[in-house]
Write a structure and sequence with these properties.
8 helices, Rhomboid-like fold, 259 residues, globular, three-stranded mixed sheet, two-stranded antiparallel ribbon, mainly alpha, 5 strands
Length: 259
């Protein structure tokens, strides 16, 4: 019938619509471009690892869009979602792009466009809440990256199609065919291992505090050095060295973790 022909149908053609996973990639790429523009042309901290400020997370983006315990304590609850739009480097962005693209396409076929968007937001929110619970005692910790949503796609697909063989590119080169259920267990094991030994494990201790002053020989009243002392060519530099030992630069802000 005429009504069944494509040119007679009303509304947009679903085949010509950009898939939802494509919109996610476009938005993340646009935000990363904005980070570079802010850093290169406006002198702002773009949260990039090549930042010359030495204080990642301390600028406009860090104060309003990065997920941190300090931001949550100040009522910036929207950072539980906005942190997923920021990335620390081009490699960080590309790694999340690959996972979002390959896994997101398969998930979108299962849940549709709107279902994919809801799943992505739920995974990002859940990842942000879990990270916040782990770092409650560290107000300086912060995190950025879309890996929470990408891992959410992967876990969902592994649960829905656990025995459907899929082919992955190991190291982006070697094709390997595995069952999704084993991929899910591997992701879970890596997450638990990282949590146990990186987040909850013993933290490295600080280096011993250097002495704040140095002992220099004092001349006796007769002009000769006292017994057991040594003569130094420039004893006048002792006060400067003592002051240098006491003065230390302020600690830098912690770099945001990338996910």
């Amino acid at each position: 019938m005429l009504s069944d022909r494509p040119y007679m149908r009303s509304g947009p053609d679903p085949r010509r619509q950009i898939p939802m996973v494509g919109w996610l990639l476009i938005v993340n790429a646009g935000v990363f471009l904005l980070q570079n523009l802010l850093q290169l042309f406006f002198g702002m901290d773009g949260l990039l690892r090549s930042a010359a400020t030495g204080r990642p997370g301390g600028g406009f983006l860090g104060q309003w869009f990065v997920l941190s315990i300090d931001n949550l304590a100040n009522g910036k609850v929207w950072t539980l979602l906005t942190y997923s739009l920021l990335h620390g480097s081009l490699f960080h962005l590309l790694a999340n792009f690959l996972l979002l693209f390959f896994v997101g396409r398969m998930v979108e076929q299962l849940v549709g466009r709107q279902g994919l968007l809801r799943l992505y937001l739920l995974a990002v929110l859940g990842g942000g809440l879990l990270w916040s619970l782990v770092h409650l005692g560290d107000p300086r910790a912060m995190v950025i990256g879309a890996s929470g949503g990408a891992i959410g796609f992967l876990i969902y697909f592994c649960l829905k199609r656990p025995n459907e063989p899929i082919t992955l590119l190991l190291f982006f080169v070697l094709p390997v065919t595995v069952l999704p259920k084993w991929v899910g267990w591997a992701v879970l094991a890596i997450g638990v291992f990282g949590l146990a030994f990186s987040e909850l494990g013993p933290q490295p201790t600080a280096s011993p505090t250097p002495p704040t002053s140095e002992a220099w020989p004092q001349p006796s009243s007769s002009g000769a050095t006292s017994p057991g002392s040594a003569t130094f060519p420039c004893p006048a530099s002792a006060p400067r060295r003592a002051r240098a030992g006491r003065e230390r630069p302020p600690p830098r802000a912690a770099a945001p973790a990338t996910g």
